[in-house]
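Good morning C.,

I know you're traveling, so I'll keep this short. The sequence:
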Amino acid sequence: MSKTHSTKDALAKALEGAQSQTLAVRAGQSRTNEDEHSEALFLTSSYVFKDCADAQARFSGDVEGSVYSRYTNPTVRNFELRLAAMEGAEDCIATSSGMGAIMSMCLAHLSAGDHIVCSSDVFGSTVVLLNNFFAKFGVEISYVKLTDLNGWRDAIRPNTKLFFIETPSNPLNEIGDIRALSTIAKDNSVLFAVDNCFCSPALQLPLSLGADIIIHSATKYIDGQGRCLGGAVVGNAEHIEPVRNVVRAGGPSMSPFNAWVFLKGLETLHLRMKAHSDSALAIAHWLESQAQIEAVFYAGLESHPGHTLAKTQQSHFGGVLSFRVKGDQTAAWRFIEATQVISLTANLGDAKSTIVHPATTTHSRLSPEARATAGITDNLIRVAVGLEALDDLLIDLQRGIDTL
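The tokens, ready to paste straight into the viewer:
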């Protein structure tokens, strides 16, 4: 056995039972014969076979080995294995974006005539994907408020195949009871998927709470610096292999370069998520004390209806909060445009703090009725707290307060 393989085997054994912070730095790496310390970046579309028999064996899956980077790539696989290890999962398939992950998961597990029950609090593009495209091919969709457990029970039909939620929700920080929803799903032989974008595996482990599948937009906190698009579907092998087949055939694959960037992001994920959470909590308390603010939505606040539940599911409360100003859309826009440090952009999970008006951006493609159901009012503002000094962020938000 070569030194490279013996070292790989020893590391894998040493990581058995390792904590998530260690897995974020070490898991999944397979060194080449160069014995590189950092993860290798394989910028290649294809791979050379030893002979025709080797090509046949790799294509058939009889032997392990890369075939084509739409199917497999060593850098992408490193990312998949690391994220799976952090989530406590058997497997992971990476995709070109978070929406690509949701689309691929639904294509793999839903057929015409099936029924999905989805939280009414999900990201606007998820609603558009389901209503405008999956419904067109015969998938039935029902929306239920995330926190209404009786509503989830009542929504089940004989053809219900999937529950889908985000928790915390975007942008109101509603908290879904993963354990309770898992019980309802399992009692009815329904697959249960959780979008873990807001928390990441640094703060929340949905599989350990009963979920079957985890969705990630790696674009957000996994990257952490707003550089690349990517997504992932995580779970046990029986749930991931059908998704892998969709990605292999349909092509929403992750770029090797993006996978390498995400690997670097994972290394600092725990440190960043705690810093995001600490600053967000301080800002939420500050906003709650301002007379010009109508309401603040952040699960870290004891006033939040999901606070107690969030403490049982999450190690911290995350970096995203939203609030309603006293006034209308004009007042909300005036507040946003007065900030000078915080970036006006729809992304989140960045080292740079961002601010956005959901009703006219992230949720603008929803009908007015759907926005009202989701609580996306014209005076609502979302802030994704970055890694700047807290005092500087408070000074910048005060500029918005001063316009009200």
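Safe travels,
E.
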